[in-house]
Structures are given as C-alpha cells and as structure tokens.
Amino acid sequence: MEIGAQIKARRQELNMTQEMLANKLNVGRSTVSNWEIGRNYPDLQLIVSISDVLNLSLDTLLGKESEVVKDIARDTNIRKSQSRKIKILSALLIVVILAGLFGIYKVVEYRDISSPEQILSLQAYEDRLVITTDLPFYRSVVGYTIGNSPDGNDTIELSLSSQIDLSLDHQQKIVVETDSLEEDMGIRSLKTVDIVDQNGIIKTFEL
C-alpha cells in the first residue's frame, strides 16, 4: 500500500478528518488530500510527524517499496530547490526595491521651494533677512542662494532649498545673512526681495 493510502486508512481508523490531521501537522487540508490521492508526497520531515500523529511506524508507513522512498526524496529535493530559488528571487526583489527607493529619495532629497504658499513671511533686519516657510512635516528649509536682480540695485533675488527631514526639527525658518551684499546694495538700500526658483519669480516682498 502506498504512503497516501496508508495515511488515509490510518486517519479513517482514528476517525480523524483531513482538516483535523492538517491542523495537527500545520499544513493545509488540500495538502493532506493531495497526499492521499497520490498527487505528491510529504517530505521526509513531515513523514516523521505523520508517523507520530497517526501512531504508525515508519516501516508500515513507507512499506518496503524503495520507489516510494526515492519519490519522496526526489520530491523533497525539488521543494528545497524551489524554496532556495524563491528565497534568492525574494532577496533580489528586495534589493531592487530598496535601490529604487534610494534612487527616488536622492532625487527628491533636496528641492527648491517653488510654491508661493510655502513662503509665509519675510522680516528684514540690519544685517539679515528672516524668512518663515510653511513646508510639509517631512521637509525643512536648509539653504539659500542670494544674488543681484536684473531689475536694479534695490532688488535681490533669493532662492530657498528644502531637504527631506524625518527628524522632529522640522525647521521652518531660515536666516539669510546679507553681509555679502555689495555696499551700495546693502540691506538699507533694498526695496524688494524676489523669491525665485529655476522658472522665475514665485513671490515678491516689499521692504
């Protein structure tokens, strides 16, 4: 009698359903069904568990048919090989996903502020400008670029950059030092500050 028939006969002797046996072996009911109809065989580790659960000796369970043992060994090797392949493919997929996420992160890590709604106010002092922004919780304002405006010496152009910031700082203000401005273009002579991005002016402040 083949192993599937042995499992079925002993299970029925014990008045055990396929579901009950599956639960004891931590497998699905369809797995037990496949064993019993000879569609496939349990692996060697499960055979030991089946022997214990059904109180059936391994000699009785396996019989003396060496072909069955060979089939089980072959089936076990195939499953192990498939399991290794799945693990390798899963690891490669995880690497690809992580690499993609890292690439996306690097692309969006630094970004110029380009929305006028994200710039709330600008306060001018003798040697500095203080700008308050309204950025998403995951970004902080971290830098600026200051330069002359083509509109004249009483106007400067200012671009602001933000960075992904997953800390609790969430820096919303930035101090722009104006020491670098030419003397005839100092903070006292300024009338206008244009906040710009790569496409042009996004917001203008009159001082």
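(ticket continues) Second input and output from the same batch:
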Amino acid sequence: MKIVCPTCNTRHRVSGDEIPQQGGGLATCKKCGGQIPIEPTAKERPDSGTRVEPSLGRTISDTHEPPPSLTPKTGEFELITEYNQFRGYAGFWKRFVAVIIDGFVLTAVGLIIGTFIGSVYGFSRGTSQGAGAVGNIIGIIVGWLYFAIMESSSKQGTLGKMALGIKVTDLSGNAIPFGTATVRHFSKIISTIILLAGYLMVAFTPKKQGLHDMMAGCLVVNRR
C-alpha cells in the first residue's frame, strides 16, 4: 500500500498486513518525522450503513455500533522504503572523483593541523624527534573523524561525495550511524592492502559495492 506524507510529500510503501482490519492509525515518516494518517482500504473497511436481518427481513441501522477505531498510534506501521527517492547506485568513476576531492581536503586539513601540532610538540619537547609519529597518529584520527562524522550526518557524505551528488546509506536506503561509518572507514584498509581490489569491485558488483561497503553493509547511491 502506498502512502504520502502530508508534511514533506514523500511517498512510502507499507505492508498491507500491518494495517488493522478494523481501523487505521498513524505512521511516522522516516524522512521528516511527520505523522501520516492511514485508513483501511475499501476491501478491509467494515461495511457501514444498513444491513438486512435475515429472520425478519427488515432493515436495521448500524449507527448504534461504534465506528472502527482510528485512534492514532505513533509507530504502528513500519515505513519500509522511500522508494521514489532511489536514483541508482553511484558508479566507479563518480566515486573515484569523490575520493580525489576528499584527498585534497584531507591534505589541506592535515597540513594545517600537522604544522600546528608539530610546532607545539617541538616547543614543548625542545626537539622535533618523534613529531613525525605524532603527525601520523593525528592524521589517522582526522581521516577517521572526517569520514565517519560526515557520512553518518544528515548529509550522508563527505565533501567529495556531496560535490558529486552521491551519499552513503544502509541496505534499506537509510542513513547510517556513526559506528557503521567507522566500520566502513577502517574496512578500507583491507580494500587497499589487497592491491586495491576492494575498490575495483565497485565497477563489477551489481550494486556497485566495494569490499568495504559489503563489510559494513552499506550502499553508495545517487543523491540527484
């Protein structure tokens, strides 16, 4: 059954088996959080009006019986998917360009942070020995936070992905949490050490998933 959110006009599909036989209720829109009133279909809606009593052959009004309950029950229905929002999986070259953009961004950010940390480290220790190791650790943390925070945010993507009009979702098309984004980020290590084969899989898998996408249970799809 298809329903439309009156707040943001997003269409959803809900299983007809979840709709009560004697009434409707409210579903919660996954996109804006608004309430969507749902009524049973004509087939499911109980008959109203009049009926014929077989034994007497006369008409009796049903108006004395209470109508089916339409009391709102938030979360009564699960909105399975925003199917009209799907615009295809992001291809290899789109994702490749996004990686290049993110590389430039992280290089610039790393240069600024590295210079600052190196200066502070050298000033406090009186030597630059060991500054390289500290810089590498800081670089790993910055890269992790950049990808994990942005991909789990409402933007669902890094600056590179946003520029190319793509985003990261789970297998149902929903935004991923920080933990999943973290798993996806560090899974890229495996995609890299096997001679980048984990990245090349994007060009050949049906859903354009790299190895790190599969390990984290993610998809990269077109935003527009």
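Agent notes: Residues 1-85 form one domain. The helical segments are 92-125, 131-151, 159-164, 178-193, 197-200, 211-216. Closing as not reproducible unless the customer responds.
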